[in-house]
Amino acid sequence: MLEIIAHTLIHIVHSMGYAGIFVMAAIQSTFIPLGIEFTLVPAGYLIYQGHLSFPLVFLSSVAGSICGSLINYFIAARWGRKFLLRYQKLFMIDEKKLAKLESFFTRHGAFAVFIGRLMYGIRHYISFPAGLARMDLKKFCVFTAAGDALCVLFYLGLGYAAGGNETELHAALPIIKIAILALVVGAVFFYMRKHKIKKRRL
Question: For residues 200 and 137, what is the distance between their CA atoms, to the nearest angstrom?
C-alpha cells in the first residue's frame, strides 16, 4: 500500500513539472491546509533519479510559497480581522487561534514569520497577522523566503536521501515533522536567549 501511495505521488509530481510545483507550493502556503511534504519529498526523489533539476525545483517551490503567503497577507491587509472571522470556516481559523497568532506576531515580529513558516499547522496562517499589522512587505517576503527555503531544503533532502526505496518516502513523513519541531524549538531557544542578553545589556 505504501509503495502504491509513494509511486502515485512521484508520478503526479513528475507530470506537473516546475510550473506545477510552483502552483502546488503556492496553494500549500495559503489558508488551504495541504502538506507541502507531499509535493517536495517526491520531487527530491525525482532529483535523485535525474528527472528534475534541484535549482529549478528549489526556486519554483520558494517562489510559489512566497506567492501563496502574499495571498494571505493581502487578504488580511485589505479586508481586515472582521472579514477573516466572518468567513472563518472558509479560512479555517477562529477568533481564539487568530488571537494567539496576533499575540505571537506582536511579541516577535519578523521572527514570528520566519519561525511560523517552519511549523506545521501554523505556516498556512502566520501571514494573516503580518497582513493585519501591515508588516513591511519587503521584510515579510525576506523572512517568508528564509523560512520556506529551510523547509524546502529539508523535504527535498529527505526525498533525495530516500534514493531507490520509494516506500521510505511515505514511511518517513512522521519523522519529518518531529525533526522540524526540533529545529523550531532550537531556533526559538536561540532567539529567546539572544533576546534576554539584549535586555540585560539595556
Answer: 31
Q: Where are the alpha helices (DSSP H) in 53-136?
A: 54-86, 88-91, 95-108, 110-116, 127-132
Output the pTM of the full model: 0.76
Domain count for the chain, please give it: 1
Task: Give the domain extent around 164.
Answer: 2-201
* Distance separating alpha carbons of residues 188 and 76, to the nearest angstrom: 26
DSSP state for residue 136 in the 8-state scheme: -
DSSP percent split of the chain into helix, strand, coil, nearest 5: 80, 0, 20
Model confidence band, residue 64 (pLDDT cutoffs 50, 70, 90): very high
Q: What angle do CA 144, 145, 146 make, to 5 degrees?
A: 90
Residue partners of 63: CB distance under 8 A and separation at least 6: 22, 25
